[in-house]
Amino acid sequence: MMFRRGFILFLPRLVGLLVVACCSMSIVYMLACTPRGDNQQLSLPRVHSPTVKEGYEAILQEREEQHRNYIISLKKQIAQLKAQLQGRTEQLKNMQNQYPDSLDIQFDHSKPEKAQANLLAFLRSQVDKAEVHSGVKLSTEYAAVPFESFTLQKVYQLETGLTRHPEEKPVRKDKRDELLEVIELAVGSLNKPDGVSKAKPRVYTASDFVEGIYRTEKNKGTLYELTFKGDAKHQFKKIVLFRPFGPVMKVKNENVNMADTLINVIVPLAKRASKFQQFMQNFREMGIQQDGRIHLTVVYFGKEQMNEVKSILENTSKSANFKNFTFIQLNEEFSRGKGLDVGARFWKGNNVVLFFCDVDIYFTAEFLNSCRLNTQPGKKVFYPVLFSQYNPSIIYGHHDSIPSLEQQLIIKKETGFWRDFGFGMTCQYRSDFINIGGFDLDIKGWGGEDVHLYRKYLHSNLMVIRTPVRGLFHLWHEKQCLDELTPEQYKMCMQSKAMNEASHGQLGMLVFKQEIETHLQRQKLSSKKT
After folding, report:
1. pLDDT of residue 481
2. Which of 135, 171, 310, 508 has its CA 20 to 30 A from that of 98?
3. How many CA atoms lie less than 13 Å away from 313 in the CB half-sphere?
């Protein structure tokens, strides 16, 4: 009985001790599992510390302070990450802004920014590697990559492929779609607001497109230069685009004013008064009447037929009220290089575009504009590939009569060929011609001087624009290869003579003319018997 009563009295104390022990163990567990500061340590209230309740409150306050500091630390780290992200974004924007605006280039923003920056840097490096902003030094005349020229309807091409057509409507879908895309992008770029002018902008269309040239460097991309009509006569808009085997990028958008750009046409001549008469008819119509920003320099060798030539020049001057001509007479053996060099150096005015020409050349007013647009002092020289006419008596031999000269100037494989081996007709600024050293005056007679000058430009940092043009023709004439020529010059002359006569097929018809006539006679006899 006493034992039971004692046990009942002791039971509440035991329960109280168990409760205290459980609470103590819970507090120890909580303190052990709570995150600690870098230099903070938690401990239980000691014997001589404040009461247990006050100790708990101090511990809770300390834990709250730790959590508060932890949250502040996380906020600082988030702020730092945001600042870094903002900095990276600004770097990418600056990288994009320092390059020309891209046309319709879309980046996948879900990908890492580094990939975007690398892509942009690669595309930019393709532009830098290609001959877009400046020329590169080349080893030989065969190393230059020629341009092709095109309009809205046709492409004038050097690499004729299986069709062997020097000009064609682009029948291949990829070529047609490519050029249409480029023209559309250029028109869109011209119509893009510049944000500066408050005047109502002009709306450009594809009909404002004049002509373009393009070429592909196999390991870099395709360069396009497109010319559009400007806001006034003799003014143009020029758009330069580059496709680095990816999206087309706008490289340049500039106004080109050619209203005051004078061309000095230099013609070396000896005898050939009748050909000069024909040349002056073309010069008067295209150069004086249609263009009007032109000067003519005739460098004449010897005295034979000189008075006839001077009379033709003076008559044109009077009838057309044209005073911008120079006549220089040299008493020495004809040398084309010497004549062109003397004519170029004789000019005393401001820097001028020089067009080295021959008396058997026909040019249009459009070509004179191409001459201006494709030359730039210290930057570019123009080496057009002209269309060389075959012998009209062979081409039109089956006709009742030979058509007029204007009707003969048609770019077809039956009428002529691109004279891609000739470098004599060229446009460049006089300053570039003088700086490059001019012609080699040791070369006499026909041929060689033009290739020598062309190689000089290829070996320089000037950009050489080499492209077929639709407004420059070499008129057929019988070629005389003189015995005085060196063996190399004579060989070149004979090769040129053979190519000038007719196409491969037309020459074949002449070779097999007897066989063809014999066959026709047999056919007639056979038809009579039946």
Report:
1. 85
2. 135
3. 21
